[in-house]
Write a structure and sequence with these properties.
Blueprint (H helix, E strand, L loop, with lengths): L38 H8 L1 H18 L18 H12 L7 E6 L8 H15 L4 E6 H4 L11 E8 L3 H15 L1 E3 L2 E6 L1 H35 L2 H25 L9 H29 L4 H28 L7 H32 L18 H25 L1 H16 L7 E2 L11 H12 L8 E6 L4 H12 L4 E9 L3 E8 L6 H11 L7 E6 H35 L3 H13 L1 H12 L4 H4 L7 E2 L2 H31 L2 H31 L4 H33 L8 H10 L34 E2 L2 E2 L5
């Protein structure tokens, strides 16, 4: 191993030798003595202007390609497409459009009765107009059928129902065209537009508006926080630019995907949150390491090369772990979940690409000017001398080192108290109840929600909770009558209407006694599906049936999703650390970091605590797919921070073989960085959480809580405490796996064996430093630990 102890400006670090001897970075060197770099690094350092120009052109194309992406997204996606309820719904829509109305016109007659001749005449005229609209089928009304379920109990309101054809995008456009012509006063009545198609369309519009507001909140706040972290306004702008590039690129990817598959509009929220959050994480790590290299006297080209070989390698590795966590959602059939996988994978990889190509090119051109416009000088103006000017930067690093030492001295206490506290915070999740999204996701006062509330509260039966049993197989009137009798005998059935027969099928309408998606109605769905139908083929659909099928689909695929995340995470962390125990710790502690999020989701959003403060309506349950989505996203982000910490610990352990000193060093070098990154990402997620749509609010606030708990509790307390308790066994691996890691493993540090007086290789357990002492906390080979970015 070569030693590099040159003056400032040389490729290596300078300073007094550390306790384990003068250890330098090692690796192959080019003709000038600077470490060689990979082909992409050579391109960035040799042609930074060309790299920036290429990035600018690609970003401009992405802006063009991604324009109008939100208009092509859909508002649903919670239903499993291969489920029995989906099949029955599709057949009923085709054969009996009136059986599946998705557009409801609520006709309010004021003080008159809906049976008043003038009201009836106007309602008949509106019904006829609606039936004549293109894209509308299956129009029916109370005045045509006199069905009691279409008339309010007070006799002042009644319903005109219809089916808007086409997919969600086409149905939304039809609604936009006809709603203005029907909503409002019309003679003696007032008409309001509702129904599932109106709810979904209004939800989509609100999400787009809220997303724009979230971006307007998050961007300036993020910029202020970045200036506080970096000090330099120039350095603070770089992560923001990387995030914008990642978001614009992901919009283009999603726009392309809408040509081939359904994509949920909710995925736009994840694109913004992860685009800004991860880009800032990666840029913080890259810029921090670059400035660190400049501080040792390295020239910009050498600093960029070293940064990409170390921090750049960690960023790429981190992006893979996050992408794997998000890719697990691809195993689920619901396109709501798959959409988040599309958006998440795209934005993670684009954020990493921008951080590893665009950002190094900018740093190459900026050089020391990356520290320009240091706004913190205003706060230090009264302090004299260079030492005083540097003190605020170094103090946080020493504080984290001292804090790490305190945690390890009391490791059993911190480990037990923290773990028990996290478990207690997660206990409310044991009482979780799963449901389906409805109009109450919308803010109070939204027109489609008002219509649905009038129907839910003022009409008889269980509006929106009815079930339909599709019957195929050429039944006879006698067979239908026998089947109807068996349906009426099922517990929980209030009324059975039908059969309504067509050319090749028939259906029964079943009104349940219980709530629309309550446990009793869900059991009724299972009981109806178990009814013997002789030679007839039956299938059940309805809101409760969709929920039952969605829960079954998630339960069937969830073990596969968790298995993918766990197995790949174990493999990736092993490749990073060469340890058998650390990957297991990483998975267990990551899962533990999510308990507060899941407990809060149930306590707040299901049970309704803080509903007044957060301005939402509790439905008494949680939408079935949300916990899966939040787990995958939060687990990936937790691994992101875990990789940052473990990579620095591993780098120092490879260099010194000092277990406790490596933990202290890693915490000192990344504690402030991870905390800053978590706070910034939490700000972005909280901005998303200001949405007026409950599911989006839950997603944003829940992940913000998970990120903060992971960075400030798990990474700061639990990880160092557990690693202290496991001691040198932390780094153990059997000989075959050590050999595998030495051949294929990855790490942030360049290939540097442990220092003199140690035994074992970089992947094996090392011995104490040469003189048997732990290096002073907050130092590295005599160099003071600096903090901040």
């Amino acid at each position: 191993m070569s030693e590099v102890n040159g003056p400032r400006g040389s490729a290596g670090r300078s300073g007094p030798p550390g306790r384990s001897g003068s250890i330098s970075r090692s690796g192959p060197s080019g003709p000038s003595g600077a470490p060689s770099v990979g082909s992409w690094t050579r391109f960035v350092t040799a042609r930074p202007r060309l790299a920036l120009l290429a990035a600018l052109v690609i970003t401009a194309l992405a802006v063009f390609a991604g324009s109008g992406v939100a208009d092509r997204m859909r508002g649903g996606g919670w239903q499993a497409p291969d489920a029995e309820s989906s099949y029955a719904t599709e057949v009923l829509e085709r054969e009996f459009p009136a059986s599946q109305p998705n557009l409801l016109l609520l006709v309010d007659s004021g003080t008159a009765s809906v049976d008043d001749p003038a009201v009836a005449a106007e309602a008949a005229r509106i019904t006829e107009r609606l039936a004549g609209e293109q894209g509308i089928s299956g129009v029916t009304s109370y005045w045509q059928t006199k069905a009691p379920g279409l008339r309010a109990e007070d006799g002042r309101e009644a319903i005109i129902a219809a089916r808007v054809g086409g997919d969600e995008t086409a149905a939304g456009r039809t609604l936009e065209r006809i709603a203005p012509a029907f909503a409002g006063e019309s003679g003696p009545v007032t008409v309001s537009v509702g129904g599932p198609v109106a709810v979904q369309h209004e939800m989509q519009e609100i999400i787009q508006e809220d997303l724009l507001r979230a971006e307007l909140i998050a961007l300036p706040v993020t910029l202020v926080l970045l200036v506080m972290v970096f000090g330099s306004a120039v350095a603070a702008m770089l992560p923001l630019l990387v995030g914008i590039v990642a978001i614009l690129g992901t919009n283009a990817v999603l726009r392309g995907l809408t040509e081939f598959t359904d994509v949920s509009v909710f995925a736009m929220n994840l694109t913004t949150a992860l685009g800004l959050g991860l880009a800032i994480d990666y840029a913080l790590f890259i810029v921090r390491r670059f400035r660190e290299e400049l501080d040792t006297g390295a020239d910009p080209r050498t600093a960029v090369g070293t940064t990409l070989r170390t921090a750049g390698r960690t960023v790429l590795f981190s992006a893979l772990t996050v992408a794997v966590s998000l890719s697990a959602m691809l195993v689920f059939p619901q396109y709501f979940l798959r959409s988040f996988a599309y958006a998440g994978i795209a934005v993670v990889l684009l954020a990493a690409a921008a951080a590893l190509i665009l950002l190094p090119a900018a740093l190459m051109l900026l050089g020391p000017r990356v520290n320009a416009l240091d706004l913190r000088r205003l706060l230090r103006r009264r302090k004299k001398g260079a030492a005083a000017a540097e003190a605020p930067l170094k103090e946080p690093g020493r504080a984290w080192a001292r804090f790490g030492g305190l945690v390890m001295r009391r490791a059993p206490v911190f480990a037990i108290v923290t773990a028990v506290g996290l478990v207690l915070l997660g206990l409310p999740f044991l009482g979780v109840k799963f449901g389906t999204a409805d109009d109450r996701q919308l803010p109070v006062g939204a027109e489609s929600r008002v219509v649905q509330e009038h129907i839910r509260d003022g009409f008889p039966g269980s509006p929106g909770g009815g079930l339909a049993m599709l019957v195929e197989g050429g039944g006879t009137p006698a067979a239908y009558e026998a089947l109807k009798g068996r349906i009426e005998q099922v517990p929980g059935v209030q009324r059975v209407d039908g059969p309504v027969t067509g050319d090749s099928a028939a259906y029964f309408s079943v009104l349940p006694e219980g709530e629309a998606v309550g446990e009793e109605t869900q059991q009724l769905v299972r009981d109806l599906r178990a009814i013997p139908a002789d030679s007839l083929d039956t299938s059940v659909t309805g809101t409760a049936a969709v929920l039952v099928d969605s829960k079954d689909a998630i339960a069937d695929r969830l073990p596969w999703a968790i298995g993918i995340i766990v197995v790949v995470t174990l493999l990736l962390v092993f490749l990073l650390t060469g340890s058998v125990l650390i990957p297991i710790q990483a998975v267990a502690l990551n899962a533990l970091s999510l308990t507060a999020m899941f407990g809060a989701v149930v306590w707040v959003f299901q049970d309704g605590n803080l509903s007044g403060v957060l301005a939402f309506t509790s439905t008494g349950d949680i939408e079935t797919t949300l916990p899966v989505l939040m787990f995958c996203v939060a687990f990936g982000l937790s691994m992101d921070y875990g990789v940052f910490l473990l990579s620095r610990i591993k780098e120092e352990y490879d260099r010194t073989g000092d277990h406790e000193g490596s933990i202290t060093f890693g915490l000192a070098r990344t504690g402030g960085l991870i905390t800053a990154a978590a706070v910034i990402l939490a700000v972005v997620m909280v901005a998303i959480g200001t949405s007026r749509v409950t599911n989006t609010k839950m997603l944003g606030l829940g992940i913000a809580l998970a990120v903060l708990m992971d960075a400030m509790v798990v990474r700061s307390l639990l990880v160092p405490a557990v690693m202290k308790l496991t001691g040198r066994a932390t780094w153990w691996a059997p000989k075959p796996l050590r050999a595998f890691h030495q051949k294929f493993g990855l790490s942030e540090g360049e290939s540097a064996p442990v220092g003199p007086g140690t035994k074992g290789g970089p992947s094996g357990p090392g011995a104490p430093a040469a003189d048997g002492e732990i290096p002073e906390a907050g130092t590295r080979d005599g160099e003071k630990v600096t903090a901040g970015a």
